[in-house]
Amino acid sequence: MRCLYLDLDGTLLGSGGSLMHDGDGTTSLLGARAIEACLRADVEVVLMSGRRQQTVAQPARMLGQGSYIFEVGSCLVLDGEEQWLTGDLVPGENGSIFEQVAASGAPDLLLEHFAGRLEYHDPWHHGREVSHLFRGHIYAAEADALLAERGHGNLRVVDNGAMHAGRTTLPDVEQVRVYHLIPEGVSKARAVAVHMRARGLRRDDCIAVGDSREDLEVATQVGTFWLVANALDRDPSMREAAANVGGVVRIAGAGYGPGVYEAVVTTLAERR
Q1: Is the N or the C terminus of the chain less surrounded, counting Cβ atoms within 10 Å?
Q2: Does 83 score more than 80 pLDDT?
Q3: Cα angle at 37 between 31 and 40, to 5 degrees?
Q4: Which of 168, 171, 213, 166 is nearest to 72 (CA)?
Q5: Is the N-terminal amide bond of 171 cis, ω within 30° of 0?
Q6: Angle at 182 between CA 176 and CA 183, to 5 degrees
Q7: Residue 183 in contact with residue 87, Cβ under 8 Å?
Q8: Helix axes 30-40 and 256-271, enclosed angle (nearest 10)
Q9: How many Å is the maximal CA-CA distance in the chain?
Q10: If DSSP states are collapsed to H, E and C, what string results for the chain?
């Protein structure tokens, strides 16, 4: 085991985005001990998140790591150097990728079409470089079909799982989920593959831990993907998705940081 690809919200971080608490708010150091175990075993930890860059860079630095993935795989920062994975959409004279996507009209199209079911994920949609962040309850496949029909086939909607924090102004939506509008081809799995090539890693050198369907796609790249238990608590259909993803998936008995600890120490013990 040489590398751990690790999601933040709903995986390593518990209630309120805390490293020191589990999902119920109970104090737990197991998430931190999972990181300690990796560092002692010389395992690189690559955070992979839908968060904007600064809010991934800071925890990566606190863990002593120089590489991380932000905005659902839009960019891999490898030893401090940005590698944009957004295809033809790149930051430049036309503004940031976020601004270019806004100018295309695609976000307004989604908000209009899914009125009452979708809104911006305030305040976390501010300060982003690539993805437009929404909350509500829609079907990503339906949104993608709409985008393609209206000439926005270079974009796609990613279901990033149940909302962990915040309130909505959508009274008719009970099970609120979070969605990213990103360039087609962008994914955490692709960013992980790019990092693995740069490091010369094999599949069996790596594991990943996450809680969302987007995280689950990383199973196609690594030796073993671990799904934390709270992912199934929030969405029981994740069990079926895990069985059909096309990689080795194990389900931790615990959620959040304790689930990450279980994945790390189990893997280290088995491989020794």
Answers
A1: C
A2: yes
A3: 145
A4: 213
A5: no
A6: 155
A7: yes
A8: 30
A9: 55
A10: CCEEEECCECCCECHHHCCCECCCCCECCHHHHHHHHHHHCCCEEEEECCCCCHHHHHHHHHCCCCCEEEHHHCEEEECCEEEECCCCCCCECCECHHHHHHHHCHHHHHHHHCCCCEEECCCCCCCCCCCEEEEECCCHHHHHHHHHHCCCCCEEEEEEEECCCCCCCCCCCCCCEEEEEEECCCCHHHHHHHHHHHHCCCHHHEEEEECCHHHHHHHHCCCEEEECHHHHHHCCCHHHHHHHCCCCEEECCCCHHHHHHHHHHHHHHHHC
Locus of tokens 């608490």: 21
Percent of the chain surpassing pLDDT 90? 86
Smallest CA-to-CA distance from 183 within 107, 128, 125, 130 is with: 130
First vs last C-alpha separation in the chain? 9
Distance CA(249)–CA(41), nearest Å, equals 23
Residues 86-108 have a mean pLDDT of 94
Tell me the C-alpha distance between 213 and 36, whole Å.
Answer: 27
Instruction: Give the position of tokens 């659902």.
Output: 72
- Strands 132-136 and 118-120, by their bridges, are antiparallel
186 contacts 60 by C-beta, under 8 angstroms? no
Both tokens of residue 247? 């990689």
- pLDDT, residue 164, reads 73
Alpha-carbon distance of 177 to 167, in angstroms, equals 11
| Residue in the structure block whose two tokens are 């790591």 | 65
Beta strands 155-162 and 206-210, pairing class = unpaired
Instruction: Give pLDDT tens digits for 216-252.
Output: 999 999 999 999 999 998 888 899 999 999 899 999 9
Residue with tokens 């809104």: 119
**8 A C-beta contact, residue 68 and residue 57:** yes
